[in-house]
Amino acid sequence: MTTETSLTILVIILSVTLAVALILAIVLLVKLVQIAKILKRITLKAEDIADKAEAAAEFFEKGASTLSLTRLIANITDMVSRKHK
What we know:
Shape: rod-shaped
Distance between the termini: 121 Å
Order of helices and strands: H
Radius of gyration: 36 Å
Structural class: mainly alpha
Helix content: over 70%
Number of strands: 0
Number of helices: 1
């Protein structure tokens, strides 16, 4: 086997290895982009859910304060009506 043949075989092996590595890198990059898109959708949904939960909490908070005020007025009315009896 001559040096020229050895170098040719080495170039072929390196070329094939580089081609395989390049293909794997492209496939990996495509998969990473797909995962990034999925994570973005999940993040947007989580933000939407958090916003809805916050709005619901504010609604119940306002409702609780209204309910407390209503109970206070009802208690005062009961106390006044008991004194008059």
